[in-house]
Amino acid sequence: MIEGARWMLRHRLMAIWKKPTWAHLIALPDFLSARQAAIEKENVSGIYQICDDAPLTLQDFLDQLAEHYACPRPRRLPAWMFRFAGAGCELFALLFHTAAPLNRDIVKAGMTSSVGDNSRMKRELLSALAYPTLREGIRLL
Fold first, then answer.
1. Residue 71 carries which DSSP code?
2. How confident is the model at residue 99 (pLDDT cuts 50, 70, 90)?
3. The domain containing residue 45 runs over which residues?
């Protein structure tokens, strides 16, 4: 997905809605370390929020990604345009009997904030992250 975003940023095709959408990321090495700890430790059960220490908005993430790749920031467009695009893809797929790569449900899910509490993960699996925020993790790209 990062490479897709990079391509879209380079070609000035990336756009994002204006309303902030909160997300909670995790660097791949930290995810793999937490997963390994969950496999190897005893008495591990239940659901863990595996995420870094600093939630951020999707808009900020894309802006930082653009800065990292020295590309223009994504355009900010009204939310109705994304919902319209999802509905348009659904209609096209219905008329031409194809799969819809984008639909209204995907757009709605993308616009939904998702932030987790990682205190249990840090207490039971991985006390310190190698990449606690995007600023440290973006160097992996």
1. -
2. very high
3. 2-78+114-140
Backbone angles phi, psi at 23, to 5 degrees: -135, 160
Q: How many residues does the chain have?
A: 141
Running DSSP on this structure, what letter comes out for residue 46?
S
Q: What is the CATH number of the domain that holds 118?
A: 3.40.50.720
Mean pLDDT (the chain) is: 95
State yes or no: pLDDT of 91 exceeds 90.
yes
Q: Is residue 101 part of a domain?
A: no
Count Cβ atoms within 10 A of the Cβ of residue 122 and give its class: 0-12 exposed, 13-18 middle, 19 or more buried.
middle
* CA nearest to 27, candidates 63, 70, 74, 61: 61
User: What pLDDT score does 109 carry?
Assistant: 96
Specify if 104 maps to a domain. no
For the four alpha carbons of 28, 34, 39 and 45, in that order, the dihedral sign comes to negative
Q: Quote the pTM value.
A: 0.87
Contact at 8 Å (CB) between 121 and 48? yes
